[in-house]
Amino acid sequence: MKIYSFCNRWVLRVAVVLALELSGFAIAAPPKINTPKVTGTEEGWIIGDVSRDLGQLLGFAQAQENGGNTSGPPPTITLQPQASGAAGAYTVQAQPEKGTAFAQDFTVSGSPWEPEAYLPWAKSLAEAWGVKPQAALADAMPDEKLIALLNEPTIENFLSANATLSAALTKTPGNAGLHEQAALLLATLAWSESATFFGTFTDPRELMNSACAHLAMAELLRGSAPEGTAGRLAELTLLVITGRQAEAEQQLGALAATANLPPSTQDWVETLRLENCGDWRKFTPGPDASLLFCWEYYGTLALEVGDYPASRFASQMMTQARPNWGRTIFYWDFCGCSCEDDLKDHKVEIAKIMHALGRGPAPAPDEETKQAPLMSMLGLDMVHDLDETQDPGTEANTTTAPDTTGAQNTTVVQGSATDNTTLFLNELHTGPWQGGGLAVVSPGEWGGREQRRLLSLLARVNTYITDDLYAPKQAAQFRKQQADPWINSLRLGPFLKPYFANNQAQYNAAMNTVGLIISAHPEWAGAGFWQQAHGPWGAWKYRPVVPDYKDWFQPWMPRGTAYDSYYRMNFTELSDAKPEVFQPWLKLAPFDANVQMAALNAATGGHPTAEAVKAALEPAVDYSVPLGRLVADASLGNMTAYQQAMQPVCDLNSSFYLMMGRTLLQHGLEDQAAAAYQKAADHFEEYPIQMSNEMLFLVNYYFDHGKKDEAMKIAQMAAAVNSEAGLETRVRLELRLGNITGAWKLAQASDQNYGAASARLMVYNVWEDQPGDAKAKRPAARLWMSYFPKSTQMVKLADFAQAAAPTDGAQLTADSSYTTLAGLEIGDVIVAINGRRVRSTGDAQWMLDFGIVSDYQMIIWQNGQYLEKTVHLPERQNGPPLGIALKNFKSKGGA
């Protein structure tokens, strides 16, 4: 069962806003604005695009057969809704360069990607223009050869197939078999984009439109002759992509049962079945499995289970010396660990496509190996290994990160408004008639696809550096050197800017640009971008001026399909729809969890029970981490039931023991949380970065319970990964053990690696009040003063005995089991933490981050008096402290 809600972390940041709302954080309502009107609808654009391509194919066939000018402009094909306004009713008009114009009414009652829908007018136009079927050339490529070629989905094979088929179609545009093969190539490219999920940049619709046009042309020319294998597979691929799962499953099963099916076709059918249902348990890649099947199996594992089992499978495949496996695998790289290879490979891929299209020279054979590693350029090559046998009080083994201030972009070609690469990537699809010939995949389709992939990669790398490596300085450097040139020169580049915004003004400007693009070119933006533009609007609480998406998405999903269900099922209007609205989609897409959950929420008012969720999603909950999580989330009212529901999820993906631990902590169940974190630590090698980033609670828990050896063992594992959070976990433990000198040297190494100061500030927060050499502390003291010129003031409760109401501080905005237990109330103003004056939420955040124990001494203003409270907050790593939510407090009153 397919669900895409846990793909590509950078895509889903909008979910943070929903989480904040559910946690009690107020999100300001957007201002009322006058939205512009969009021209046309998505359905009209799809049908118009298919019709244009089909009209050009017919026009080229007519010109070639009758000795016309194939070097001239293609016929002009236009589409208009019929005056009746009936759903799916259009008038197509065709005007060749020379000759009689043509017009005919037709109705698309089902899917706009159904080739049969276009046959009535296509037959009439073929008769009017004298288009006739043509026999295949003597050297025509057999279907099985093409299928075998595409079973190894490398860019070289895609380009080879495109060149061969384009040349053959230019010679014999009236051959049905060639159009079937062209449709299969286009459908494969669309499938690769749809299945690999470029985030919000995923948009294979143009490729699907072209595939549909070729299938319609093939059916027109074929007449009563049987459909070829390539055409059958192309149609089945479109069924799967468009979410027509029930129909696809039935037809794929029938085809799989066919006697004497060639091996390459068997592979294709099995791969489509895996993509259609998502149940990876039913399929086992053998040593002879096609690259396409292995690629799909890897992607399904990554989507349904997680990075580790997928990577383990990938390693197994690499040991079998599969050609191009390493270069193909990056399509499915969720974790970002191979991001520098992704970008290097993609640069070479773009160069190969441009060379094949006559747009540039071939890349040098050693182009990939010549490029400087991106992580090294940014000083992020996981700088050193701490020697765990060394005494923490002695100098740690460190190496200085290279100076990258002058680093040049050698990983990705720089983008500019006029260079050939940018011009190629910005080219628009204008149809298959290209100059004097037919192009199966047009330059605009190549360029658009590669642009979407490039921008998706840039976003993923940025997220990897920012969220996984916790290296904001290097992320800013990456954006400036690598991403900004492309963002400022590519037509879809501005869609990345909101993700990179650092302040309200940047976000507003970025979203306004997105709004302008969507208004002018609604077809450029998939449903994900429309949803992003319409809200929730993220932390910046800003809505750009964009058309209403219900004006463009008519209907919500293309008629007769469940296409792109993840984004479309989350449209606001559908969240309020009646249960019967979802019935057609439930029949179309029985394996689609997005549809299943939307229907279930509609039937239960958005509050389904865990039992109902499990019943709706079975048996997928047994093999899918995202779906198992849905069952667990529905059990949150009962922690015993929640742990029972999470156990199968953790069995599939051990990193979710961390999530279980966090949830148990939120409910104040620290002993059970520690057990969950320990289970995560038992699988440390599977997700080392993620594990190292979240071991702080377990280290503190063991220390507080007298298990210092266990605490040190976990802290050493976390630090050995060399993530910033893992190193800081070790620093905190050394401080608790009283080893300030060792902690300081570890902190220096950590901050040097990541261009940060947090670890050293943490040490000084403890060191300041300790006896020792004042001269040795001086650098740390200067560092502290540079960050907190006002927060060096040390205070105690007695200092507030005669004070009026506070004028500044950090105000509690939500309660939790921890704040309630401590006697804090919503509206309380925190003025000091652990003896330091707090004047803002920033001060409070730093004081909480720098604490090395779980109990904080706070001075608060509550009900007209200053009080001292001990507040237990068990986790402070990777985000705000658990169980406390604050906002800045400012008042003109008081002293």
What does this structure look like?
Helices cover 52% and strands 7% of the residues. By secondary structure, it is α+β, with helices and mostly antiparallel strands. Strands 6, 7, 8, 9, 10 and 11 form a 6-stranded antiparallel sheet that branches. A 3-stranded antiparallel sheet has the order 1-2-3, covered by helices on one side. Strands 4-5 form a two-stranded antiparallel sheet. Strand 9 and strand 10 (865-872) form a beta hairpin. Helix 5 (155-171) runs parallel beside helix 14, helix 18 (443-468) runs antiparallel to helix 19 (472-487) and helix 27 packs antiparallel against helix 28 (610-617).
Figure out the total of helices: 41
How large is the radius of gyration?
A: 30 Å
- Tell me the helix content: 40-55%
Structural class: alpha+beta
Morphology call: elongated
Overall pLDDT score: 82
Beta-strand residue percentage: 5-15%
Strand tally:
11
Terminal CA distance reads 62 Å
Unreliable spans are: 3-34, 330-338, 371-414
Biggest beta sheet summary:
6 strands, antiparallel
